User: Fold this.
Amino acid sequence: MSRELVFSRFERFWHWAQALLVIFMMLTGFEVHGSYTLLGYEQASDLHRTLAWVLIGLWILAIFWHFTTGEWRQYLPTTQNLMAVVKYYTVGIFHAGVEHPFKKTRRAKHNPLQRLAYLFLKLAINPLLWITGLLYLFYNDWPALGLGGLSLGPVAGIHLVGAYAMLVFVIAHVYMSAFTAHPAFAYLKGMITGYEEVED
Amino acid sequence: MIERAAVRALLPTLVFFGLVWPVWSAETTQSDESTADHSKFEALQQEFASGPEVTKACLTCHTEASKQLHKTTHWTWAFDNPVNGQELGKKNVINNFCVATATNWPRCTSCHIGYGWKDDSFDLTSEEAVDCLVCHDTTGSYKKYPTGAGHPAYEDKTFPPNNPKGKMFKKVDLKKVAQSVGKTSRATCGACHFYGGGGDGVKHGHLDSSMKNPDKNLDVHMDKDGLNFTCTTCHTTGSHEVAGSRYLTKAVDRRGIVIPGRSDVRASCESCHGMAPHESDDKLNDHTDKVACESCHIPQFARGGRKTKMWWDWSTAGKKNAKGKPLVTKDADGYDVYHGKKGDFVWEENVVPEYYWFDGNMRYTLLGETIDDTSVVQINSFGGGPDDANSRIWPFKVMRGKQPYDKVEKILAIPHLFGKDEAAFWKSFDWDKALEAGLMARGVKYSGQHGFVETEYYWPVTHMVAPKDQSVACNECHSNNGRLENLRGFYLPGRDEFPLISRIGWWLVLLTLLGVLGHALIRIFFWIRER
Ligand code: HEM
Assistant:
């Protein structure tokens, strides 16, 4: 075991910026949807549309980073150890002394469950949001773009599906990463400082 | 000392420029623009006994004026809708105010730009019968007598006549009025258009006497201390033809901003502002294809302190007071809420419009058309919808009421209201006689049986444009129970819901929360037990 830099400076910046943006996107998005009134429709919608560009910019940057550094491999799904991890979170975790079956290394910093969850986020939830979001943004240009056959209802509906999926992900993710580590808050600290204990 | 001297010198200068100069400059502009002083014209240096005599004098120089006016709706009161072929105009349509012009001519034609339209024999080709003064008076002293078939008072007269409590109409000084003629103004157009439906603000709700000298809050364009537009600034004229028509509206005007060299007329917001008028907010410009300017920029109508009539129920007319005179009941503000001659009224102020998709093409329920008396009859209707590129969401004043119809023939009926004869409703209060005479005048036989049917009349709202900080805010439509609550058939963000997605969505969110919470509780439970 050694303490090593697991999350580079860029990765930490990307993670927290994304976290902040996603929280604001959800807050403003559900207000636009009419779920509650917080900032007022105009403010919410303005902010949602502005932050959407920031978020997309960040996503593009992150995609670029993942491919140039090869870090995208961290998300390749695997079944090896998967059931053990599931069993750990459903049974083992309740008992003191049961260790996490997954041993983090620098080459594989996400456990198989994490890999699946993050891959789903990156390949399903995010694209769903930004494809429908971009369509939504350019609603007025649909005829010019040859998309005159689309109608806003379904686009907004699918965007909304993405939003609920994002909310579910965020709740589960916050719990798992902030509250299930041993010692307490170790994962959280890791994402802040960048350093974590890893197997050699 | 120096300061005080400066003040002493400055003060008169300020007073001059602050008080005197604006008045002086305002007074000079009108006459400055014209190259003619009508008081110097020989033709006008005479005493005139009647309006037509003045017109004769006008025509000696303005040789083509009457011929031009004869072609206008202002004169003919007839409008052939080129889109649907309907014959409209005041002469033809039925409304739910005083219903129709037929047989009531001398009363109605006090708002005709002519003299003497007192019955069907009126000669629409007479050049002298055109009333130049009602539009071109600048003295404010020229008023048509309410029952004078378009003539002003040639001697001191009250209205109602011979009633000491009535409103005084002074003998008009035709010579003075003729010598001071000038351009039309809010006051001259307003003399008729503010009083449609028989009284101040009754009909339109966005045109009433408060628009004579409005402030900026009431109308940004006509603001007397600001832009000070007159009606013809937008309703441009040429050959006495005035731009803009309620019968045939351009619901979307994509012709672009009117610049010299283009023969198009103004009268639409877009003809000055274009289709992308919001400089700092693209999202607002994104709305102009579907939402008429008026929908956001006229947050309420009847905002000038005058109420407008929203409901008129003819079926209750006829009640008399103890003296045998028509019963009149007024509200706290002095508006008739019941009049024995006319029935029950509802008046409203600061009214939020109703919104509908509108393609600009008005279709009327005309005399003789079969109506469905089991439901509300639409006096006028129009096309339009979210998928029609030539329609937009427009604000409307919807005038509702109950009016007489022929129960057997199932057609809207026309009452003969005004007159000294026995058939006139305002004389004998006998519906059958009044309807027989009214319908007869238009060549329709009355079955002898009448009823009252509820009707709706849609008036696009276009005036009383508020300052931009008072325009309708986003959330007033993008919300539940907002202004567009009843306008369906398209997806409106912030209002529309996907019940299934949201039900499943919130359940999943809830289950996730419960799962996380349960997981944490079980951990705490074991942690305490195993310690
Ligand atoms: C975490 C990410 C996001 C969440 C949770 C989210 C959520 C939402 C929700 C719930 C709505 C309301 C939909 C409706 O009721 O019609 C909405 C609207 C919208 N979203 Fe998103 N969204 C996200 C990302 C994006 C992105 C990346 C874009 C653009 C690429 C975008 C563009 C829009 C637009 C244009 C609207 C319509 C709002 C308006 O017209 O102002 N969203 N969003």
Notes: The two ends of chain B are 91 Å apart (CA to CA). Chain B is about 25% helix and 15% strand. Residues 19-30 of chain B have pLDDT under 50 and may be disordered.
